[in-house]
């Protein structure tokens, strides 16, 4: 019987051992990261899963104390009651008018502002950027009373444009900061080359810079749409007629003096989330990194 022992040259033992253990360490780290990612995904996805499943449960099962992860039977009655609820159509119309106008306006103004502070050096530029950041840090509830007084003086209470202005202003600081980050990463040589080829500054911006800003515009528009689409408090304060309520305010119809229709409420909430998900699926390809690769000829 013979035994073998590993013999290595003096000074080479520890590096060789580290080299042998390195693949195992990488494998364990990868498993740990995968586990953390899986747990994070389950934590984030579970509320959405519970929302959709509750929308498909019968009402008596929703009110039962014995809740299960999967319903005993599926039904679309909750969706029928949600769609047949009063003012469902007008709520969709109000949300689309307010959110689309606010997002388009925010993208136009924030793109111009981001290009100005990203490309030009002017007096007060840093102060302007700090003010944008400070405004973004203020919670909307602190501005509720001043906004209401100003909108009332302007005659904007119970008007779409009053809510549009609020959403537009609340979105502009973050969108400007986000798009500015993309502006400063676009090489100036592209713009200068376009101007040498005969483009005006506006032409160079429209033909060269604007297409390269697509990832930033996509990310900022998603943020703006989510911010406007999910907002409840300000719309509830400014809009006062039932036929002008946005979808989030319209959800109050499912809570009455006799109780809450949880099934219809969950179904309506599921329907409300669909446009945002569809918009994200539409623009998410534009958010891929590396869109500017190959823009400069080698």
> What's the overall average pLDDT, rounded?
83
Number of helices: 13
Name the beta content range.
Answer: under 5%
Instruction: Report low-confidence residues grouped into runs of 5 or more.
Output: 1-7, 290-298
Largest sheet: 2 strands, antiparallel
Counted beta strands: 2
| Assembly of the depicted chains | single chain
Order of helices and strands: HHHHHHHHHHHHEEH
Helix-residue proportion: 55-70%
Terminus-to-terminus distance: 67 Å
Query: Mind telling me the C-alpha Rg?
Result: 27 Å
Structural class by secondary-structure content: mainly alpha
Strand arrangement in the largest pleated sheet: 1-2
Principal-axes shape call: globular
Can you put this structure into words, describing what you see?
This protein has 13 helices and two strands. With 298 residues, it is an all-alpha fold. It has a two-stranded antiparallel sheet with strand order 1-2. The N and C termini lie far apart (67 Å). Mean pLDDT is 83; it is low at 1-7 and 290-298.
Task: Map the helices and strands.
Layout: H1 13-56, H2 59-62, H3 77-84, H4 88-119, H5 125-137, H6 144-154, H7 160-184, H8 188-196, H9 201-212, H10 214-229, H11 233-238, H12 247-250, E1 255-256, E2 259-260, H13 262-283
Antiparallel strand pairs: 1-2
Helix pairs in contact: 1-13, 3-13, 4-7, 4-10, 5-7, 7-10, 8-9, 10-13
Task: Compose a concise summary of this entry.
The protein is an all-alpha fold and 298 residues long. Helix content is 69%, strand content 1%.
């Amino acid at each position: 019987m013979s035994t073998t022992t590993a013999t290595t040259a003096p000074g080479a033992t520890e590096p060789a051992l580290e080299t042998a253990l390195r693949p195992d360490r990488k494998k364990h780290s990868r498993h740990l990261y995968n586990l953390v990612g899986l747990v994070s995904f389950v934590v984030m996805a579970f509320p959405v899963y519970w929302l959709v499943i509750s929308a498909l449960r019968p009402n008596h099962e929703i009110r039962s104390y014995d809740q299960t992860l999967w319903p005993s039977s599926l039904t679309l009655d909750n969706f029928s009651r949600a769609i047949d609820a009063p003012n469902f159509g007008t709520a969709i119309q109000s949300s689309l008018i307010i959110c689309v106008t606010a997002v388009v306006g925010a993208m136009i103004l924030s793109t111009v502002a981001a290009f100005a502070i990203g490309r030009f050096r002017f007096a007060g530029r840093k102060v302007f950027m700090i003010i944008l950041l400070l405004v973004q840090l203020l919670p909307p509830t602190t501005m509720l009373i001043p906004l209401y007084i100003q909108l009332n003086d302007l005659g904007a209470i119970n008007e779409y444009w009053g809510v549009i202005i609020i959403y537009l202003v609340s979105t502009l600081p973050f969108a400007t900061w986000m798009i500015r980050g993309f502006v400063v990463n676009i090489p100036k040589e592209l713009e200068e080359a376009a101007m040498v080829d005969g483009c005006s500054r506006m032409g160079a911006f429209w033909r060269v810079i604007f297409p390269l800003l697509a990832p930033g515009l996509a990310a900022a528009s998603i943020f703006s749409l989510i911010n406007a689409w999910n907002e409840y408090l300000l719309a509830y304060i400014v809009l006062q007629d039932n036929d002008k309520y946005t979808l989030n305010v319209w959800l109050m119809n499912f809570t009455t003096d006799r109780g809450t229709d949880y099934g219809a409420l969950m179904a309506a909430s599921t329907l409300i989330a669909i446009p945002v998900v569809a918009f994200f699926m539409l623009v998410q390809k534009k958010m891929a990194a590396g869109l500017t690769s190959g823009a400069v000829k080698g």
